[in-house]
User: Fold these one by one.
Assistant:
Number 1:
Amino acid sequence: MNVSRTIGRAASVLAVLIVGSSLAGRASAHVRYVTPGSDPVAVVAFLVEALTDPLNLAVLGVGGTASLLAALGYLRLRPLRRDIAVFRETVRGYRDLLPWLLRLSVGLPLVGAGFSGYFFSPVVTLGSPTFVRLFGITVGFLLLFGFGTRLVAFLGLLSYLGGLLFSPALFLAFEYVPAFIAIALVGGGRPSADHVVSQLADAETAYSRIDPFYRAVAVPFVRRVEPYTALVPVVLRVGLGVSFVYLGVAQKLMNPGDATAVVAKYNLTAVVPVSPELWVVGAGLTEAAVGTVLVFGVFVRAASGVAFLLFTTTLFGLPDDPILAHLSLFGLASALLVTGAGPLSFDAWIRERDRRSTPEPPSTSVRSDD
């Protein structure tokens, strides 16, 4: 990894991270889910007006500068090392629950989508409502029970990608892609029906003598994918990061009309007394910044915490926002708190640099010449 290039990218990302963090809050919902509709707004004119206002520039500048100084100060001073180390060790201890967390994160919203009659995203309905309902309920419950988990996740991924070809609006639910891939890699885990079946098939039981699947298919497949399970954090953070960038750029900065209508609908300028333009730009920049940070693996657990905060304010702040549509994002952010950035990340480079720069403790053994 090119260190100088990585640091440069990280610095530019971190400079934007807090730009709109105090402003995004409840405006960070999926705009398409709650917009009351609006007249078309010229994107360039809107952004020029918002970014040439002296007050807006002052707020954005102070936020960006504070973010950059905070990040650089942390990298230099590294405060609360012991607290952070204990926190990391604690959440890493939940790794055995990661498959269960991922299954809940996908299974629950899919069951809700099935009963509600939409295909992955509330803005997408297909011509056959019966198929959509059966698909969501069946795939969702199979994932919740953890039965045939890897196969179900693979079929779910193919279904999403196939739907995306015909309905680009499904990109609003892009987080299903990394979630399905991660589930296919880690399997059902425990507790799950797959774990119960594997225990029965692996032991000297009557079932083990008739099971046609476990030794012939499941075990060889697990052995093949096992080397790639270390990439699960990369899959999760890149996929979630792409979702955030899309939501921030496409749904807010490039769709200011609907975004401004949402600000007006919920009277968000009464919550934080700034212009609607600054609300929209702040929310869009925050989501895009969080997404970019996740993609490059910069302070991933902290970024996941920010994402978790944005989702929480969205769910409790917008009364008519479809909560089920956000559960998958909630779950992936929670999963990243457990896994951290993983390999191919700025966090991994920092960790390796610290390991090399920290001298090994002197040996306590006593050498004897006798």
Number 2:
Amino acid sequence: MRAFTVNRYGKTGNELQAADVPRPAMGEHDVLVEVHAAGVNVLDAKIRDGEFKLILPYRLPLILGNDVAGVVVRVGARVRKFKPGDEVYARPDKGRIGTFAEFIAIHESDLAAKPKHLTMTEAASVPLVGLTAWQALIEIAGLKKGQKVFIHAGSGGVGTFAIQLAKHLGANVATTTSAGNIDLVTSLGADVVIDYRQDDFETVLHDYDVVVNSLDDATLMKSLRVLKPGGKLISISGPPDPSFAREIGKPWILRPVMRVLSHRIRKAAKRRGISYSFLFMRASGDQLREITSLIDSGIIRPVMDRVFPFESTNEAMAYVERGRTKGKVVIKVK
């Protein structure tokens, strides 16, 4: 099958390589999916560049890709929820990524039926950002009606989804974006929109319950000023904390490393009576089914920027890395 692989880690001149590789092996609980479309994420670039090799030691060469929509072609002996011909979508488990390919094997617990009214390309844009928003706002934040949440980068992939989910939960939503995207984030439900090129969010926003950060460490530190005591700062861009090491079952020797990496932000948060959490979202077919119901009900809609052909996977990656996308970028494989 055709696939795009990472052959070595590195940031400079390290494009993915087009390759012919064997179809993935299947376990008894696995579902073989013919990939129709694959979402492209900043996470893909970070994995390619080696930023996660300490906590996600993939064996190279590695097929990249963390979002998929496609059709079931075969199921393992103990699979009960899916059958050949089903249209599905997923964010594969972090240890079994590889959606930039014609086929991928996914554990049935990580898979869900595709939303009925979405195309394959639209569906492929949802899993990673949808699960990230769900786990940040519902699992960690426990966001409630009437609370105030500040979501950085509202016009990006996570931002466009998180704004809609937060509004569905009844929260008051603030976000940052550029002037050209103000109408977009307002249409998604943002109540307060800050043009980051004109204003400093930390001087405008006060007494928020939750902040979801997807930007750099400097922005993370500034976000503390927005929160009230007892507030929650959730970062999907790091730094990882010791609880994350325990969660992913890493050896005890890595926990002090993560403690050091997150020491500054955890200390600053504690001083203000704020909790800090790092979120590296996990695969979940059950949560995807909840997300599917919101999409099928018209409560949440995917926001798409561009669709690239499979052979232009490297161009799609470069486009996402420029950091100016409106919603998601997707590769059309079939």
Number 3:
Amino acid sequence: MYKEVLVSKIVILTGDAAETLEVFYPYHRLQEAGFEVHIAAPEKKKLQFVVHNFIDGFDTYTEGPGHHWPADIAFADVNPDDYVAAVVPGGRAPEYVRNNPDAKRIVRHFMEKNAPVAVTCHGPLILAAAGVLKGRTTSAYPELAVDVETAGGVFEDGGAVVDGNLVSARAWPDNGTWMKAFLEVLPAP
């Protein structure tokens, strides 16, 4: 007799100009752990990611073209109740994704339900815009400390900062410790 196996799903909220490694590392690592992972974006289309690098002598990171990858679902079509957790990568995508009302709706849902949320790099910009950082401790790309604090949050410069359901990191060099900490707060798939 055939028995349907239900797999827990996780949604990644992103868009064009997201940092390739901050999307792909959690995408594949969470699949490896047994989760079904969906990429959500402002619209269902092929996304263009970017690669950020840190060069000695530069005051900030550099950016080049990264990989293409299709979004599975548009933010407007995401029912957060279908997912056990959310991941918010960085790159430049959060600069405009934070203005999307459905992206904010999705983030608010997870934070209000105390469901696991992983955020890195510029991702906290979306949480700030959604109004869910007040009193919360998060890491981010260090130059975003002022944005976290302006939103009422507490900035911590770390690679795997855990504040209850919220697991955060600075950028892609933290991917291993960030996802290890996130897997520890996730329910079993």
Number 4:
Amino acid sequence: MWLQKEISLKPRSRGFHLVTDEIRAALDEPMQIKTGVAHVFIQHTSASLTLNENADPTVRADFESFFNHAVPENEPYYQHTFEGSDDMPAHLKGSLLGFSVQIPITNGRLNLGTWQGIYLCEHRNRGGSRRVVVTVHGE
């Protein structure tokens, strides 16, 4: 069985945001699929997805600090600058983190670890709403 849904995530400020509950709600957990895989893909090049700590918000703040240090704005070698000083770094951060995650499905639910959550990594100062496509395959 295959299932695919497009989810529109509300606009968020720059940073790392838990979106696990929004994705679960859109999938109507528990699903009819008992065993399978969910592929979650963001349709943008200046935001990304990753899995990590879902309990302590300082982890998300540290992610933002690290990536701002690792990929700073206003570097003199950036050529793609007409969309703002945050745009080229956003593309680089997106490529470093990636635009999709895969999560196993067990007994109709996303089988995340106890302390795992899905992050929307918003790399733009004003990124707007983001579209995510979730494709589920299993039986």
